[in-house]
């Protein structure tokens, strides 16, 4: 295994375990049959694959490229054509799960692409996952991930407002949260995020600025299907306010702080 990260120190756990570190994306992929990228957004994906010393030019014919970033289906469609012209196969395979699932190799991959490419890459993906779901052609994974994150972002924003209301109302916060967690609004996300909000522990599990980006991508993609994600617009406004107040690099649960302090 060869690894690359723009911040070399972040690759140290892998190099300590025996992986080789490459100084550029091109160097990382030159002998690879399966190449996986996981990056912040469309811009980062384009740069790593196609920028100066980018990975694509050094990718060998017949390789399988797996884009696991949360990116737009528009970029995936464009990139898929470029990859095909290069003589390789592309899977778009973003993941659900957070830091804990990643460390345990228990991510869930949402995959779009050809059956044959997925079959060839399955053993690699299984090493990091608890399940692989093949959703259809290239772009299907990216679309499903944006739907997933849209619902997550709206729920986090709503929870921030609800918890602030609870705190100002005089209700016992712990009792109120127990009722919500056990009732119809309850979900694993609500349980995890409410604990972080209550304790004001914003160690990053999911960057606030990335959820803001995902909500924008979701709005743009849904608009292509003539769906106006009005709740995403409201939620994104709350996340953007948090970014303006310096919380972009904190966990997304910190979106509550501007609401609390208003």
What does this 3D model show about the protein?
It contains 13 helices and eight strands. By secondary structure, the chain is α/β, with parallel strands linked by helices. It has two domains: 2-138, NAD(P)-binding Rossmann-like Domain (Rossmann fold), CATH 3.40.50.720; 143-260, Orthogonal Bundle (N-(1-d-carboxylethyl)-l-norvaline Dehydrogenase, domain 2). Strands 3-4-5 form a three-stranded parallel sheet, with helices on both faces. Strands 6-7-8 form a three-stranded mixed sheet. A two-stranded parallel ribbon has the order 1-2. Helix 8 crosses helix 10, helix 8 (140-169) crosses helix 11 (208-223) and helix 8 (140-169) packs across helix 12. It is elongated, with a radius of gyration of 20 Å. The relative contact order is 0.09. The mean pLDDT is 97.
């Amino acid at each position: 295994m060869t690894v690359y990260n723009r911040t070399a120190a972040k690759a140290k756990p892998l190099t300590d375990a025996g992986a080789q570190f490459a100084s550029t994306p091109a160097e990382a992929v030159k002998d690879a049959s399966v190449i996986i990228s996981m990056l912040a957004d469309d811009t980062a994906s384009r740069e790593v694959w196609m920028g100066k010393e980018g990975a694509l030019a050094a990718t060998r014919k017949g390789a399988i490229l797996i884009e696991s970033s949360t990116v737009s289906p528009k970029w995936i469609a464009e990139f898929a054509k470029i990859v095909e012209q290069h003589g390789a196969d592309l899977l778009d395979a973003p993941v659900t799960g957070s830091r804990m699932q990643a460390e345990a190799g228990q991510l869930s991959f949402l995959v779009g692409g050809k059956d044959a490419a997925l079959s060839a890459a399955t053993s690699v993906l299984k090493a990091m996952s608890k399940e692989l779901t093949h959703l259809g052609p290239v772009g299907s994974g990216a679309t499903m991930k944006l739907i997933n994150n849209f619902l997550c972002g709206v729920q986090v924003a709503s929870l921030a407002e609800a918890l602030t209301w609870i705190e100002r109302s005089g209700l016992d916060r712990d009792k109120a949260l127990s009722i919500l967690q056990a009732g119809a609004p309850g979900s694993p996300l609500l349980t995890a995020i409410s604990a972080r909000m209550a304790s004001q522990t914003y160690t990053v599990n999911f960057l606030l600025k990335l959820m803001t980006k995902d909500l924008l991508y979701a709005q743009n993609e849904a608009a292509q299907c003539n769906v106006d994600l009005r709740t995403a617009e409201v939620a994104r406004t709350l996340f953007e306010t948090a970014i303006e107040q310096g919380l972009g690099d904190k966990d997304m649960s910190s979106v509550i702080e501007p609401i609390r302090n208003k």
